């Protein structure tokens, strides 16, 4: 293990009790706390059985570190199976279920805690998981040995803030008896996706977006891909992302974003989004922070570009 403050490779796992709020509603505070404590005790035991360390317990969630991807994988499967097999020992009324996310990668060890990219990714994939699921990434699957990788099935892609491209997600088929839909492969990109390009223009500046998972940022900040220095725009106002061959506008602003599909002369109704995403059509305009119809609006134009 790396010294305190040092960089090392490790697997990070988050296990979260699914539907814990409902436990409090059904059983009351005292009983619900007892049920959750029992479940966390089982999770802690499984962690130790697989060379892991519980870094912290946060309410109804545990964060653990393991020396290898294999150890984290075995612990994740062990956690799911242990809670299922001991359901009546925890509570005889409602089966306690967990959702698990894990990632193999670089971490920074500091004061008994761990930080870094692997921690951020593990937390993100845990949030994607649903009850009784184990979700991880392609990077982790590639680090597995033996037959473990054969239990992983690609099922989705997600963008992660601060990272280029998208994460390819895998679900672990740990329960042969589960009534779950299995996917043979990740959702494919649309036909001809690799040939698609989006031209985004503001004033005399133009940016071409054509890489899957790539993010184009817009706003007042000089660090944005396309600087839109207007009074209504936030520093980082919005992003355009190429996702599965389609282009998505994601607003992250204070004042929202206004979009007119097809452009001002198209007759289309203006759409307003705030902290939301919008699938862009083949062409149109949008305005950061004020209506496209405002007299002083400065429009951003977008259109699919020919290859």
């Amino acid at each position: 293990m790396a010294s305190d403050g040092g960089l090392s490779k490790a697997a990070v796992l988050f296990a979260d009790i699914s539907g814990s709020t409902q436990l409090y509603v059904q059983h009351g505070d005292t009983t619900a706390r007892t049920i959750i404590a029992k479940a966390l005790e089982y999770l802690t035991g499984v962690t130790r059985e697989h060379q892991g360390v519980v870094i912290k317990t946060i309410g109804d969630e545990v964060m653990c570190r393991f020396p290898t991807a294999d150890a984290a994988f075995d612990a994740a499967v062990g956690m799911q199976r242990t809670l299922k097999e001991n359901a009546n020992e925890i509570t005889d009324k409602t089966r306690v279920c967990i959702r698990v996310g894990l990632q193999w990668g670089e971490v920074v060890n500091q004061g008994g805690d761990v930080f870094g990219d692997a921690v951020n990714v593990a937390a993100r994939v845990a949030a994607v998981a649903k009850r009784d699921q184990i979700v991880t990434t392609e990077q982790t699957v590639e680090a597995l040995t033996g037959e473990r990788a054969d239990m992983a099935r690609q099922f989705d892609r997600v963008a992660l803030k601060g990272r280029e491209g998208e994460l390819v997600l895998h679900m672990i088929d740990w329960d042969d008896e589960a009534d779950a839909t299995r996917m043979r492969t990740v959702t494919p990109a649309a036909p001809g996706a690799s040939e698609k390009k989006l031209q985004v223009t503001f004033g005399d500046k133009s940016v071409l977006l054509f890489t899957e998972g790539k993010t184009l940022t817009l706003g007042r900040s000089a660090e944005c891909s396309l600087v839109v220095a207007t009074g209504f725009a936030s520093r980082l106002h919005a992003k355009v992302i190429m996702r599965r061959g389609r282009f998505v506008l994601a607003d992250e602003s204070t004042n929202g974003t206004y979009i007119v599909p097809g452009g001002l002369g198209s007759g289309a109704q203006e759409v307003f989004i705030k902290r939301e995403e919008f699938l862009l059509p083949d062409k149109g305009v949008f305005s950061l922070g004020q209506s496209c119809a405002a007299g002083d609006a400065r429009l951003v134009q977008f259109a699919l570009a020919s290859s």
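The longest helix spans residues 29-49. The two ends are 50 Å apart (CA to CA).
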